[in-house]
Design brief:
The chain is about 55% helix and about 15% strand. By secondary structure, it is of the alpha+beta class. It folds into 3 domains: about 55-175, Beta-Lactamase, CATH 3.30.450; about 250-305, Orthogonal Bundle (Helix Hairpins); about 310-455, Histidine kinase-like ATPase, C-terminal domain (Heat Shock Protein 90). The longest helix has about 55 residues, at about 30-85.
């Protein structure tokens, strides 16, 4: 029994879930548009419902009262016609109808009335009201047509010797003021929209400024930000500034510590070099010098990775100029290099960090390729730098592992052969500190393609 109940209840739940998913997919995604919708939609709907109920009731009452007035006029015309049979031409009756009642009167020969109009009309309320009022005022058979062209109503009353045909303007019996309702709704909605837009724009601006400040700080750029707006927004802004101060203080402390460690390690390495220089030339001394040089390179790589160049200021950086230097260095090593530039190659970044990023990627390509291609594309939103080589490449399943610190590829391509295994890790860390990313793919030259994407 419970299974049957669950199955019966599951169908409405699924329909409701589909409806909510469909509605969610079509709702605006921005906070400004959503806030406008939340503020305006309930007000407009409530106002529409209230105005519609009021106008509909008012419209109906006025229509019945106007129809009652027309019915009284028709009854008066019928009474006058029957009271003064001596007026053969009934000219006085037509004059009274035209001048005093705003009604066009004509006498038709006695004949059967047309069949009632059964076609649905736009003036159903008028049909209902006029029929009810005429039935109260007249004892004679009558027929009405409320859908005549020219905004007219035709009323026929069958008498013993003739048929009275009367044409009345529809506005005499019908309160056609729906345009007032639409004008009221349009004007009220425009006023509400203008007020809500003005207030919400001022409330959204501080949130957008906070988001932009956080984005700029995430890209490693200088941020000038002061909290504004509502209390909650200012509270979030103050929290962001406090976080920014803590991060900067941590970076400063780390930089100071690493500078001290670097100085101490370099001092010891310098002592080793001096001691080896005094030992003279021997096989043991030469091997020791190689070990010391290797240790110095590894220490520099470790410190560079740990430091992350966080203390460097942002400045306009010419990517083409940096790659030109690396291109010249590659050509001196006997590696052929082609370069293509599309768009403005200048980007706000930390110059030394970007140079190290590109140098690591180009050095990796130099080590395993005999032909390189550099390309720079500015698409208006991002600076895209591609470095292609014709080396052995990296298998697809191991490309992400190549970015891991201290990870060494044991196959034919080892991006840091004889070194620390930090080249690509440092490059990706620098790219991400600028809000960008590095990806590896297969190069059209047959080797590896490194793609650097940096936001403008």
């Amino acid at each position: 029994m419970s299974l049957v109940i669950n199955e019966v209840l599951s169908a409405p739940r699924q329909l409701w879930r589909r409806f909510t998913d469909w509605l969610h997919a079509r709702m605006p995604k921005g906070l400004y548009a959503r806030a406008l919708l939340i503020v305006i939609l309930p007000v407009v709907l409530l106002q529409s419902a209230v105005a519609y109920v009021f106008m509909e009731r008012h419209w109906e009452v006025v229509t019945y009262r106007l129809s009652a007035g027309v019915a009284r006029q028709v009854a008066a015309v019928v009474d006058i016609y029957r009271t003064f049979p001596d007026d053969a031409e009934h000219s006085q009756l037509r004059r009274i109808a035209a001048l005093d009642l705003n009604m066009e009167l004509s006498l038709l020969p006695h004949e059967a009335l047309p069949a009632p109009v059964t076609k649905k009309s736009l003036f159903a309320l008028l049909d209902k009201a006029l029929n009810r009022e005429l039935s109260r005022k007249l004892l004679q058979p009558y027929w009405i047509n409320t859908s005549l062209p020219g905004n007219l109503i035709e009323i026929r009353v069958a008498l013993d010797d003739a048929t009275l045909r009367m044409l009345v303007t529809r506005t005499h019996a019908y309160a056609s003021n729906s345009y007032i309702f639409f004008m009221w709704m349009a004007i009220a909605s425009i006023i509400i929209l203008a007020i809500a837009t003005s207030f919400l724009r001022n409330q959204i601006k501080p949130i957008l400024r906070l988001a932009n400040a956080a984005e700029e700080f995430g890209k490693g750029r200088d941020v000038q930000f002061s909290p504004r707006g509502a209390r909650e927004v200012r509270q979030a802004g103050n929290a962001f500034l406090e976080m920014k101060r803590r991060v900067e203080r941590a970076i400063e402390q780390r930089t100071t510590m690493l500078n001290g460690v670097s100085h101490d390690l370099r001092t010891i390495i310098t002592r080793f070099k001096l001691s080896l220089a005094l030992m003279g030339e021997s096989n043991e001394a030469r091997e020791a010098r190689k070990d010391v040089d290797e240790m110095e390179r590894m220490v520099e790589a470790y410190l560079a990775f740990a430091r992350g160049d966080g203390g460097e200021a942002t400045a306009p950086t010419d990517i083409r100029a940096l790659l030109e230097e690396l291109k010249a260095d590659s050509e001196r090593r006997g590696v052929a290099v082609a370069m293509m530039v599309d768009g403005d190659p200048v980007i706000p970044a930390r110059p030394a960090a970007i140079k190290r990023l590109l140098a690591n990627l180009v050095g990796n390509a130099q080590r395993y390729g005999q032909k390189l291609e550099f390309s720079i594309v500015n698409d208006g939103e991002n600076m895209i730098v591609r470095i292609d080589d014709d080396g052995p490449g990296i298998p697809v399943e191991r490309r992400e592992d190549a970015f891991r610190p201290f990870y060494r590829l044991d196959e034919s391509r080892n991006q840091d052969n004889g070194n620390s295994g930090l080249g690509l890790a440092i490059a990706r860390d620098i790219a991400r500190s600028h809000g960008g990313e590095i990806t590896l793919d297969r190069s059209p030259l047959g080797g590896l393609r490194a793609t650097v994407t940096l936001p403008l």
